[in-house]
Amino acid sequence: MTELKAGVARADITPPCGLPHGCWAARTGLAEGIHDPLRAQALVLDDGTTTIAIVAIDLVFAGADLTAAVRARVQELTGIPPEAVLVNAAHNHSAPSLSRGSSVVGLKDAPAFADYVELLPETIAGVVYAAWRSREPARVGAGAGSAPGITVNRVVPERPVDTTVGVLAVDLADGTPLAVVTSFACHPTLMGGHTLLWNADFPGPLRDAVERERPGAEAIFLSGCGGDVAGWDYWFGNWEASRHSFERRDELGEAIAAATVAALDSVETSGDVRLGAASTRLELRRRRHAYAIEDIDARLAALEALPVPEFPEAWDDSVHTATSAQQYPPLYERTALAFYKDMVERADVPVEAEVQALAIGDAAIVSNPFELFNTPGATIRSRSPFAQTLTLAYTNDYAGYFAPPEDLDLVADVSLDDILDQDAYRWAYGITNTNVEGSEMARLIDESVALLDSLRGAA
Fold first, then answer.
1. Where do runs of H (alpha helix) occur along 39-96?
2. Is 456 in contact with 388 (CB distance < 8 Å)?
3. In the chain, is it the N or the C terminus that has fewer CB atoms within a 10 Å radius of its CB?
4. Residue 434 CA: distances (Å) to CA of 331, 379, 429
5. Alpha helix locations (H) across 265-390?
6. What is the pLDDT of residues 210-246, one digit of tens each?
7. What digits encode the pLDDT tens for the residues 138-174?
């Protein structure tokens, strides 16, 4: 019989004020305050043979360089091997724009964050060390709930979305709550460029609500496969979408928290739990398109010749994430063209992706580095041999969007001029900048399930 031990810890990773705020363009303001802090959190589980670390960070990306630095330092401090350390980014767009090794073109660390980034791997690894040092006898269990009516397929709003709320409950041996892990598929874009306050988007109020209901527990959010999922009615091209606000943000986070707490009521925890960890690296074929490099360069040159607009410090209420590319088309076109050019220049260079799986008794976590659309994520979960499976994206790197082949077929024959027209093709964002061949989706799914099968067989 195994004796499970667990420890949790957190650190504040909120950047200083006075630095460029978040990932939204079309504004010039610097961060002027903090609405709620950004967290780095770690849950360490140890069954006496295997130790795993689940790390959640309130950043937009967990780039490959950042993940590698964190893993190396964690192994030095604790002995936990890299394949047993999972680093999930909330994909919070109200966080600083940091790449730290992302494989996607055009994502660069803002120079103003050089000092902040320098210490970040040590800070995150230190959270894992603190959690590891605090291990004590514990019990763990898993369950699932649902949070319908709060999200929408932002690409094709008529399609259903995955509303599953995955839950892990970790208690001390005497039943005292230690940690609650929640996974859900939704873009943390409930706040746009209207605020200059650092904030954690909807995971912030989600965690606060869970911790109110489970005093003493550390609430941890893990971002699911929400590449085509947004909150409320924020589907692309919706000029009637409800306005961004902290109130609307909090309402969504608290709805997920309510589903989490409801699911906890049926979770049974056990200290006799075996752990496992496995990881594999894939080389996926890069997507090919029909756009000529000469046409792409000509469009880029024309955009560079345009006068630089004078942007306000923050967005006014007329700007919305659902339609911002239509309101500021040159900003979008530059980014899109850079993606298309990169696909041509690196056509024969595969897209590298780590798939990782962790086993926690009858539950599992499986992850990938993409903004994976929600249907493939749900498919992986449905094929898992475990009773409960949390399927994550944005993990251990950022490799861009990954849409299913049937979605890529929708834009396969669209001309360059047409695809850049945001009034016509704003809806296709996430499809148009997928940089992996659609036929590789089956391989990603199969490899994810194979890892889960291997861990289940070992258990």
1. 64-78
2. no
3. N
4. 18, 19, 9
5. 293-304, 324-327, 329-345, 374-383
6. 999 999 999 999 999 999 999 999 999 999 999 999 9
7. 999 999 999 999 999 999 999 999 999 999 999 999 9
The two structure tokens encoding residue 212: 């109110």
* Tokens describing residue 196: 């200059």
Q: Using only C-alpha atoms, what is the Rg of the chain? A: 21
Displacement of CA 311 from its chain's centroid (Å): 28
The tokens for 433 are 């900048």
Q: What number of helices (H) and strands (E) belong to the chain? A: 12, 18
Pair of tokens at residue 46 = 């140890």
Contact 154, 228 (CB under 8 A): yes
Instruction: Return the closest-CA partner of residue 418 out of 352, 333, 344.
Output: 333
What is d(CA 34, CA 15) in angstroms, rounded to the nearest whole number? 9
Q: 103-132: b or e for each residue (b if 16 or more CB lie within 10 Å)?
A: bbbbbebeeebeebbeebbebbbbbbbbbb
DSSP state at residue 287? P
Q: Phi first, then psi: what are they for 112, rounded to 5°?
A: -65, -20
The Cα 245–Cα 235 span in angstroms is 16
What per-residue confidence (pLDDT) applies to 340? Answer: 94
